[in-house]
Amino acid sequence: MNTTGIQSDYPEEQQTLISMLQRCSPYKMLNLRKNNLIFIQPELFEGFEDIKCLLLSHNSISQAFDGNQFTNLKNLRFLDLSYNRINLYFEGAFSELRSLEVLDKSNNNYHFMLNGMGHKLAFVAKLSSLRVLNLCFNSISARISQRVYSTSIKEFIFRDNRQDIMWPTEIYFKFFKNLNNLTRLDLSLNHLTCLPSKVIQKLPSTLKAMYFQKNELTSFPWETLKYLPFLDVLDLSNNYFVTLSKNMVPSSFIPVNATVRELTVSVNKISTIEKDFFHNATMLSSLNLSYNLMQRVEFADSLLRTLSVLDIRMNPLICTCDSIFFELVSRFNISIPFLTNQVPCPDLLKDKSIFSSGTLVCPDSHNVFLFSSSFLLTLLFVIIPMLKQFLG
Question: Cys staple from 69: which of 40, 158, 184, 325, with CB 3.0 to 4.6 Å?
Answer without folding.
Answer: 40
